[in-house]
Amino acid sequence: MSLGYLIRRILIFFVVMWAATTLIFFLPKLAPGRDPIVERMSMLAATGGVMSGDISEMVKAYQANFGLDQPMYVQYLRYLGNMVRLDFNYSLAQYPAKVIDLIIISLPWTAGLLTMTTLIAFTLGSLIGGLLAWPKSPRFLQYLLPPLVTFSAIPYYLLGIILMYVFAFVFKIFPLGGGSSYGIMPTITVEYALDIAYHSMLPAGSIVLGAVGFWTMAMRGMMVTTMGEDYMILAEAKGLPGPRIFFWYAMRNALLPQTTSLALSLGHLVSGALLVEIIFRFPGMGTLLYRAVTGFDYFAIYGVVFIIIIGICLATLILDLVYPLLDPRIRYQRA
After folding, report:
1. Which residues contact 51 (CB under 8 A, 6 or more apart)?
2. Share in percent of the chain as helix, strand, coil (round to 5)
3. Most buried of 63, 116, 118, 329 (most Cβ within 10 A)?
C-alpha cells in the first residue's frame, strides 16, 4: 500500500466527516416545530414546574446559555469547534446532564449489540452460503434457503415486533424489553452479564435473522463463481482433501467480495439496529436518539449522530486499509 493512497483515504475520511456533520447541523433546524427551549419551558409550565409569566425571560436566559441566540453562522462555527473536542454541550431535554455523559452510558450497549450480531450473522451466513454452493454438502441444507431469503426481505424492526409478540407476549420466554432486570445494580459479575444476555436475545435475534439471509445469498453467489476457477480445478487434480479445498481455496477467495459488502452495508446495519433498540427499549444509542428527536434536543441529536458517523467511517476506513492484506493481489497504486 502506497503512502499517497493512505493519505488520500484519510483526507476522504475527514471530508466525509465534515460533510456529514454539516448536514446534521442544518437538518434538525429545518424540521417543523417550535423552538426546543420554548417547547421545554411550555411543558414545565403545563406541569406546574414554572410560572407561565416567567417563560419568556427563562427562554431568553436558556438561549443565551446554549448559544441559540447567536446568528446561524456563529452557531455553526461553534458547533464545528465543539465537534472536534467532542463537546456536545448540555442536553436540552435532560438538563443539566451533558450529552457526552449520556453517550458514554449508551454507547457500550449499542457497540456490544452491533459487534456480536454482526460477527454472528456474517460468520453464520458466510458458512451456510458456502455450504449451499458446495456440491458435497448435506442436501438438507437446501431447505434453509427459502426461510433465510424470506427473513432477509423483512426489516429488522418488523422481525423484532414478531419475535416480541411470539416469545415475549405469547410464550413469555423472554422479557418485553429493557437492557437488564429492574432493581439490579450494574456490577462486573457473571450474574449481571447473563442478565444482559437474556434481555438481549430478542433484539440480537431480530438483527441476526434479518442479516444471515443476506450474507448467505451473497456468499452462495461468490462460491458459485469461485467453483469454476483454475486453482479450484488444480486443487482437485492434486487430490487434496475436501475440507481443505473448501476452506482454504473456495471460502478464502469468496470471502474477499464478502468483506467489501460488509463495509458497504454498515450504514444499513446500524440504522436497522437503532430502530430495534427503540422497539425493545434497549438502553443504547437508538433509544437516546429517539428521545432526542421527540424532545427537539438538538445537541443530543448532534452528538449521537456524530458518534454513529465516526463509527461507520472508521469501520469502513479500516476495512479498506485491511483489504490489501487479505488479498495480496490488490494494489492501490498505479503500475
Report:
1. 45
2. 75, 0, 25
3. 118
Decide if pLDDT at 193 tops 80. yes
Cα gap 80→22, rounded to integer Å: 8
Alpha-carbon distance of 254 to 251, in angstroms, equals 5
Mean pLDDT of the chain: 82
What DSSP line would sit under 242-253, residue for residue?
Answer: HHHIIIIIIIHH
pTM of the model: 0.81
- Cα-based angle 101, 104, 82 (whole degrees, multiple of 5): 60
Asked if 220 contacts 132 with a C-beta cutoff of 8 angstroms, the reply is yes
Cβ-based neighbours of 98, under 8 Å, separated by 6 or more: 88, 89, 90, 91
Identify any residues that bridge with 150 across adjacent strands, giving them in sequence order: none
Q: What is the pLDDT of residue 9?
A: 81
Average pLDDT score over residue span 248-258? 84
**Cα–Cα distance measured from residue 223 to residue 244, given in angstroms and rounded to the nearest whole number:** 15
How far apart (Å, rounded) are the C-alpha atoms in residues 9 and 97? 36
Structure-derived torsion over alpha carbons of residues 102, 106, 111, 116, reported in degrees to the nearest 10: 180
The pLDDT of residue 267 is 74
Q: What is the pLDDT of residue 199?
A: 92
CA 210 to each of CA 16, 159, 263, 299, 305: distance values in angstroms, whole numbers, following the listed order: 28, 7, 17, 32, 23
What does the block give as the cell for 23?
448536514
d(CA 221, CA 97): 50
H helices, E strands: number in the chain: 14, 0
Neighbours of 194 (CB within 10 A): 10
Distance CA 262, CA 319 (A): 9
Interval 296-327: pLDDT, tens: 787 888 888 888 888 888 887 887 777 766 66
